[in-house]
Amino acid sequence: MLRTAEITAELTGQLKGDGFHALHFGPRLEFAVDCCICERTGRTQVFERGAERALCSGSRSGFARHYTAGRIAAYDTTAGAERLALRALVDFWWAPFEDKKTGAPCPAAPSHPWVRLHIGYHCPMAKESGRASLQTNLARPYDLRCGHCDAVLATDATTPAVRLLA
């Protein structure tokens, strides 16, 4: 059955003006999904905006990385002088199974609602691009810093939200 999850995140801080780093959410996100292909719960799957399938991390004990039915169905960002927000809808396929390693039944909702969001920026001092990420299991508030000049790019005050819609 087709499932859809809504992922939302918000960064705050001085995002425009002196030292502006052109902060933006990248086209890739990683999401923990129970995979009915390799029959393992909580697999990290990589979703890329515009891709027609996702990549599952597989399992260390036998099942290698593999493609699976999943895609980013909607991806919307809003930016202002002090706020950058993301709302993404992720479609993925789910079918009942028992985890191959533990034997536990797979619940209908993702058993580990974890997400990592990738962020890009351009440092005006170093005149180079950089990358950062945020994820649900970081301590909050979390300051994203430039890898070149160490300036605070934005603050991640609230955990990205994962909500199962269908």
Give a verbal description of the structure.
The chain is an all-beta fold and 166 residues long. The protein has one domain. 0% of the residues lie in helices and 54% in strands. The protein contains no helices and 12 strands. The protein has strands at 2-12, 24-35, 40-48, 54-56, 66-68, 70-79, 83-93, 115-123, 128-135, 142-145, 152-156, 161-164. Strands 5-4-3-2-8-9 form a 6-stranded antiparallel beta sheet, with no helix packed on it. It is elongated. It starts with a strand and ends with a strand.
Secondary structure layout plus pairing:
Elements: E1 2-12, E2 24-35, E3 40-48, E4 54-56, E5 66-68, E6 70-79, E7 83-93, E8 115-123, E9 128-135, E10 142-145, E11 152-156, E12 161-164
Antiparallel strand pairs: 1-7, 1-12, 2-3, 2-8, 3-4, 4-5, 6-7, 8-9, 10-11
Strand order of the largest sheet: 5-4-3-2-8-9
Largest sheet: 6 strands, antiparallel
How many strand elements? 12
What is the overall pLDDT average? 90
Q: In terms of per-residue confidence, which ranges show pLDDT below 50 for 5 or more consecutive residues?
A: none
- The total number of structural domains is 1
Euclidean distance between termini CA atoms: 9 Å
**Computed CA radius of gyration, to the nearest angstrom:** 17 Å
**SS summary, helix count:** 0
Helix content: under 10%
- Give the overall shape: elongated
